[in-house]
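Re: that chain you flagged

S.,

Sorry for the slow reply, it's been a week of failed gels. I finally had a moment to sit down with the sequence you sent. For the record, here it is as I used it:
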Amino acid sequence: MAINRYGTEARAYWRRWLPQRYAALPDPVAFFTALGEQLEAQVGDLWDQYVIADSAPADETHEERVARLAQLKARAEHEVLDEMVRLEPEPGAGLDEDDGLESDEEYEARLAHLEQHTEWVSTTTEALLDGKLHLSDLDDQQLRHVLDYMTPSFLRLFGTSVEDLRARGRDL
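Prediction finished late last night. Pasting the structure tokens below so you have them in one place:
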């Protein structure tokens, strides 16, 4: 099994800020694969708690709902990673190394891109539901992005399925 994104982030952090602990791991791939799965489960559990405790405004639009849920997930990720991954750095660690960890500016740019992408998916989904846009108006990559946020059963609303679209030559 491959290391998921949480395990990858943890591995990068440990390599830079906890190099002695990292070097002592007998099997880093197995360790960060397991840690990544554990982090993913805990993020999901905490996100569920936040969603249950959160009350949606009565007049909330789909776009606002997607943004609110994304914020709750980001909050859960931040808290779980702070608790389980971003441990106190070892003395002298990370001073002269560049192991690919993103800078604050890169993080802000990634976050802005994510917000733009989320807004695009929300707007596109609403346009599909309102009939202002058709599945045939989207290229394969755009349709995959929509399906990443919506379950494949979403296509039933349009009288089709992933299998049907693949049979028509779509690369999904």
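What I noticed first: The chain is about 65% helix and 0% strand.

Talk soon,
D.
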